[in-house]
Amino acid sequence: MLRRFVCSALLLLCGFCFSSTLVSLHAAEKAARPNIVLCMTDDQGWGETSFNGHPVIKTPHLDDMAASGLRLDRFYAAAPVCSPTRGSFLTGRHPNRFACFSWGHTLRPQEVTVAEAVKSAGYTTGHFGKWHLGSVQANSPVSPGNSGFDKWVSSPNFYENDPYMSHNGMVEQLKGESSRVTVDAALDFMKGAQKKEQPFLAVIWFGNPHLPHEAVDELKALYPNQDPAFQNYFGEISGVDRAMGHLRRQLRDLGLAENTLLWFTSDNGPRPPQFKKDGPRSQATGGLAGYKGNLWEGGIRVPSLIEWPAVIKKPETSDMPCGTIDIYPTVLAVTGAKVSHQPTLDGESLLPLIEGHKMSRNKPMGFWTYPTKGHPKRSTDILLALQKQQSPGKPNPPGPVPDADAGSLKAQYSQEELPGSAALIDGDFKVLKMENKKGTPKFTLYNLKQDPSEQHDLSKQDPQRFKKMKAALEGWQHSVVDSLNGKDYAD
Question: Which family does it belong to (predicted)?
Fold first, then answer.
């Protein structure tokens, strides 16, 4: 009898220990999964931070982030305008692969987004701020909610102070400075996830410094010697900086900062209030050629910083070419997320670089501006019209579903005609194809390390490299057309 009692007690104790071990392992596994916060500004140029040398703009919080984390000095937006870059950010693919050719164009619902991918690793997901990849009406196939986000407080396009937003489909007005209210909405989501002990992905897309520039008085006062247009413009950038400072402080106060990967970048080059050759435009791009809307360096090279204290122990700077196409594969590598049917990727994981290892890109980076017009999306008008049709608990008004045809593959594209500007960056070299108004192409070659302002065409001095890179660009464009015509969705 005593032996049976002892055996039963031992079995019970072993079972308790095994159960406790499982609980501890599960808790440790949860704790090991980093949180991911991905931030992006709207039309902020490569030169529009203090750490990149702007003589006027004050960005102390971004400067501190640059001084403590990983600074990516050759980071590229996938496109020189907003919606396409946002699509690349979410998918790791060039936006032409899914027909997101210009501003106001949408995702395709067939695409796999980073928000959908990380769910396989147990993450909860949220989007906050500018969407601009389709409707923010809840039943749209390309709304944030139908693109993988559990919680979303989103605007159809850029927005200013006291903005109207779609909160999981219901329109509401937030009160406060544009960038700050966006971060506060994201922080509410993060606190909720922390309470549930759930790792999170938060995508924060600011509406600034996009036109029209409307900084609050406190931010304009930072620039007393500037004319009103630039008080507003610079003030909006400082507003983003302060919001980033608030976000970083809150992450520390919540005990989340150590194991949170925080990534900051912009969606394309700048569009200052005035364009002067040697004035604000040159300062906005840090002396790079071009600006928003073209494939010169000033149109696509943007500031980018990564902070992750648990992994990035000392400040680092990298001049390896990388870009918004790399965000998706990097997040998958960091989180261990799995995707069963992965369409062709253009991006590569930057995790080795983040971990402090030397890294070189495995394949060149392609760019292609397809000559298609943008689609106007006036956020406040759209949201006020939607709000009038809503009632409590019923976010979707009767009538046609916005962007219902976003996944259509009826339009098919030629492999022979590859219209528009294009570029290929391979290490230090860039081949650039520009078209005049008649569609006549001109190809040039630049060494970006020696000539970052793209002043000296090397196509005649280095004809073999020029020929090889032109062929590689065309080959990449053919791959893009295959995706555009639906090849990646065959299964």
Answer: Belongs to the sulfatase family.
| Residue 7 in this model has a pLDDT that exceeds 50 | no
- 170-173/164-167 β-pairing: antiparallel
Q: How many domains does the chain have?
A: 2
Q: What is the pTM of this model?
A: 0.92
Q: Quick check: is 71 in a domain?
A: yes
Are 430 and 293 members of one domain?
no
Whether 306 contacts 72, CB under 8 Å: yes
Judge if 346 and 430 occupy the same domain: no
**Cα three-residue angle 107-326-62, rounded to 5 degrees:** 100
Can you tell me the mean pLDDT for 313-323?
97
Q: What CATH number is given to the structural domain containing 472?
A: 3.30.1120.10
Is the same domain home to 334 and 429?
no
d(CA 207, CA 156): 10
| pLDDT at site 283 | 86
Give, for 479, the enclosing helix (H) or strand (E).
Answer: helix 463-484
Q: Are 348 and 441 found together in one domain?
A: no
Q: Output the domain CATH number for residue 117.
A: 3.40.720.10
pLDDT confidence band for 477 (50 / 70 / 90) = very high
Domain membership of residue 264 (yes or no) is yes
- Between CA 308 and CA 327 the distance in angstroms is 15
Name the token pair of 346. 């253009």
pLDDT at 273: 86
364 with 440, same domain: the answer is no
Give the span between the Cα atoms of 69 and 314, in whole angstroms.
Answer: 7
**Across 64-180, where does the E strand assignment appear?**
70-72, 75-76, 124-130, 151-155, 164-167, 170-173
